[in-house]
Amino acid sequence: MNAETSFAPNGDDNSPGSTRLLGIGSSRLDSFIEKLKNLDSSLEKLAEFGDEKTVATAKRYQQRLADIEPSITMIGQVKAGKTSLVNAMVGWPDLLPADVNPWTSVVTSLHISPQERAEGNNAVFKFFDQKEWNRLLNKGGRIGELASRAGADEELENVREQIEQMREKSRSRLGRKFELLLGQEHDYGYFDQELIERYVCLGDDFDDDDDEIQAAETQGRFADITKSADLFLHRPEMPIKLCIRDTPGVNDTFMMREQITIRAIRESRICVMVLSAHQALSSVDMALIRLISNIKSREVIIFVNRIDELSDPAVQVPEIRESIRETLKNHQGPTDAQIIFGSAYWANRALTGSLDDLSKDSALALFNWAENELECIPNQQSPADMIWELSGLPALFRALYERIAEGVGQEAIDKVARSAINLTNGLHATNQIITSQLDIKSLDHVNKEGIESNLNQIEAQTLRQLQDEYAKLTDGLCSRIDRSHRSFLERATASLISHLEKNGEDSVWQYNPMGLRVLLRSAYQIYGARAQGSAQKIFELAATEICDVYGRTFGNSGATFAIEAPQPPRIPPPVFLGQTIALDLQGSWWKSWWKRRRGYQAFASNFYSMIMEETDPIVNELKQVQATTIRDDAVAILREFLSDQRTILLDAVEKAESSPEDLQDMLGDQDYQDRQQLVEATLSSLNTHVA
Ligand SMILES: Nc1nc2c(ncn2[C@@H]2O[C@H](COP(=O)(O)OP(=O)(O)OP(=O)(O)O)[C@@H](O)[C@H]2O)c(=O)[nH]1
Ligand SMILES: [Mg+2]
Q1: Sorting pLDDT into bands at 50, 70 and 90, what band is 322?
Q2: Which atom of ligand 1 has the smallest separation from the CA of 305?
Q3: Ligand 1 — pocket residues by CB below 6 A?
Q4: Minimum-distance ligand to the CA of 77?
Q5: Looking at the structure, do residues 529 and 623 belong to the same domain, yes or no?
Q6: Residue having the nearest C-alpha atom to atom 13 of ligand 1
Q7: What does the pLDDT look like over 241-251, one tens digit per residue?
Q8: Is residue 428 included in any domain, yes or no?
Q9: Kind and range of the H or E element at 161?
Q10: Which candidate, 8, 10, 576, 642, has a CA 20 to 30 Å from the CA of 678?
Q11: By C-alpha distance, which of 227, 235, 254, 301 is closest to 75?
């Protein structure tokens, strides 16, 4: 079955409540799309110049523009309505099953594209690999690690039991194939709700064997081991491609999902935190606050869902807004993140056009909210348009589009424009060489081998510099982190002892690990700023040296321009710092750890080593994973830049070495003057794109 045909409500794009609504708010991207088109047509023009290599490179850059797909990760409280909201955002109300069993930990990425895909709508499901699965089963995930470290045997036993049950269920559902499936992926050339359910929804328990087999055939067959689902669908109403990632709610027993959420946040530049209006943001959601507090405020949007369930939204919404701000302030969260209120329920009703059977309470809430928002709703809209506006979805899209236009989208344009400028500069140089060659007939000093060896030298030298600088910076980062780590542990232990001296062992002591996070974050920020600075410096050096090669090779005829150095690598936010550690867990875990200790000395040394073990992974993540990623990115950027430059420069040399007749053959009957005009026009249009 084709997915498109399985979705009945949107047959007619002009009917109220169709996916037409998805286009509302797109105007925020108008100027971004204009820039994209301009850049694309400049590249198209470069392709017209005809020589093969230029065409191939220009096409590669065009493809890069076509591939821009900003991604947005939705995170939030369990049952806040993330999945329902994602369904509304892609205009397919029941696509992903809402209300799934809380055990699932699948991250679903919906890729929506205004262009039709040659392969149609398709789906890819990936399973956990053996290592991830073993970690969950053997250690019980994060919570198991915590429990065993804290010596909370009872809890650990509990976790193990639940996991054993889960493993048994998976065995019976998936049979012998089970182990073989780990690490695999399943691809489909279509998808519908039923298929998705097989991969993301756990089935219920069945008493009867026959039922069980039947259920395994349909619902929840693979859900135990599914790690991610990628669904691709065509939405002509969308202004650009988007990837929207639905994650499982964060507070679950295994804390498996916290790691999953952290990874999903890392893969996107923008994060939407979905809260439920009844429990807007309480200290219970500390884990969530910790996760977003490591992301820039501008890249976090808070969506307060389910306002249809409020009795008086007009009055309650400002109160909720205030309380969220207060909570964020008290816990060092992103206080100026934008907060949007809405209802996925209303949005999905607007999409299906089934507006008459809103429940009475929901309708009352809708009228109440409509009065409040009157000035935001333009006149003469259809009821579906009005409800869509009140659902908060257009506001959410507008906010997302603004972030995309100024952030990740602009960066992508900048990157391609810089490469395109360099390509055009190469053509410009070639042009000048051709004219000078036509004048002087030969350029004795042009020597291909000499240039190649020059380029090799530049490459070796700048790459070495980059590696050396980064090694130094990483050393600095590590020693700063180790210092912070030690001093935090010492301070915390001192505070523990002083508590024991004052209060004895019966009163439970608490210590906020915020201080450690602040110290680690600042060490990482210092590293990030330096890492960008060094990359910038070395990239610019590489550009200048290559420019010199042009000058040396072609004399004045070649080097009349500057080469655009690429932008330094992005410093990804240290989301991992938000990971829950034992000190964050108040309540029973901590109390049970506390009760097990006897004697000050035992407290102090046990405490020190437990917190050390707990915080080590965070520290290592910063030192190793984050720092290595940044270095690898910088190296990849430099390599690509040098390789593009090599192609362009050698191409110019080849032309300079050709006989006038061969040149004529290569360039066809294109007139030099025309060529030059085209090059100059393209250059000046490209220059408008870079900052
Ligand atoms: N009234 C109302 N109910 C909603 C709204 N959004 C979601 N729900 C309901 O809330 C329940 C949970 O919705 P989901 O979309 O599964 O929530 P979730 O955040 O994805 O849940 P988890 O993935 O399990 O954390 C479902 O029964 C939805 O129908 C809303 O805006 N209004
Ligand atoms: Mg969900």
Answers
A1: very high
A2: 31
A3: 76, 78-84, 98-100, 102, 248-249, 305-306, 308-309, 343-345
A4: 1
A5: yes
A6: 81
A7: 999 999 987 76
A8: no
A9: helix 153-174
A10: 642
A11: 301
